[in-house]
Amino acid sequence: MKLVRFTEGGRTRIGKVVDGDVVDLSGVEGVGPSMRQFLADLPQMRGVLDAVSSPKLPIESVKIEVPINDPQKFLAIGMNYKAHAEEARAAGIPIPTSQLWFNKQVSCLNGPFDPVELPSVVEKLDYEIELGVVIGRRCRGVSAAEARSVIAGYLVVNDVSARDWQHRSPTFTLGKSFDTHGPIGPWLTTDDEISDPHALEMILTVNGELRQRWTTDDMIYNIYDQIEYLSTVMTLEPGDILATGTPAGVGAASGRFLKTGDVVRATISQLGHIENRVEAVP
Q1: What is the band of 93 on the pLDDT scale with cuts at 50, 70, 90?
Q2: How much is the average pLDDT of 162-190?
Q3: What is the CA angle 120-157-214, rounded to 5?
Q4: Helix, strand, coil: what percent of the chain each, to 5?
Q5: 112: pLDDT strictly greater than 80
Q6: 84: exposed, middle or buried (Cβ count in 10 Å: 0-12, 13-18, 19+)
Q7: Residue 217 has pLDDT above 80, yes or no
Q8: Which residues pair with 21 in a beta bridge?
Q9: Residue 84 — pLDDT band, cuts 50, 70, 90?
Q10: All domains of the chain, ordered by start, with CATH?
């Protein structure tokens, strides 16, 4: 199931994408406006939701919104692809010896087709295509062997990064959390639709020019190892977003940073694409 938040007629609600249409699920008892709450209730409601076939709207007639606007956590792992780690090493950045996690503040979340801001205080704006994993149930102390059972689904993430701000703080948080620097989407594809999340192709272009192309099998720490590691420390909640790392080809490696007017398109096989134009702001 492809779960989407959409706006039509001035009202935002939850639906599912089926054959180019959005099926409105807001009429189902128990379905409210919060995707986080929806995911917590999804296992009990799945049979009813699968059967809903109307009302439906052509997808081009609605505005597709950020799939999860109210997560409690938006976490990302650094240098988790072998080739990306090597390009970082070549730039003089040491490769971490354990999982390197940082926060993207949830206020940076952005819609899949909404503009990304380039503030006047940022000089080095970068892109990072990443597979986003969304947690489906409250959990703590999850083993790698059990980790898939707590995943609700997957989406495309662009971990937009203000590199000059990122390197001012060892936590990365400021450089990763400017408003609009967390576009995700276009919807959440539930785990049952993806046979192997470690066999997905990732492609990122800037103005149609290929910048990143890799597959998710290049992760140093796979998704299940990531969930085990994080849940050792903290309770993971429905709707929490984990950005699982980016492959080689980021702008920081080549010195080619984003500028006003650039259009960044990030695509992951079976999940769809997001596309965001860079707009200057004071």
Answers
A1: confident
A2: 95
A3: 110
A4: 25, 35, 40
A5: yes
A6: buried
A7: yes
A8: 18, 58
A9: confident
A10: 2-64 (no CATH), 74-281 (3.90.850.10)
* Tokens matching residue 53: 């076939």
What is d(CA 210, CA 208) in angstroms, rounded to the nearest whole number?
Answer: 6
pLDDT grade for 13, boundaries at 50, 70 and 90? very high
Burial of 50 (0-12, 13-18, 19+ CB in 10 A): exposed
Contact between residue 232 and residue 142 where contact means Cβ atoms under 8 Å apart: no
Q: Which residues contact 233 (CB under 8 A, 6 or more apart)?
A: none
Distance, CA of 135 to CA of 154 (rounded, Å): 9
Percentage of residues of the chain with pLDDT beyond 90: 93
Is residue 279 classed exposed, middle or buried when 0-12, 13-18 and 19+ CB atoms within 10 A define those classes? middle
Residue 204 near residue 127, CB atoms below 8 Å: yes
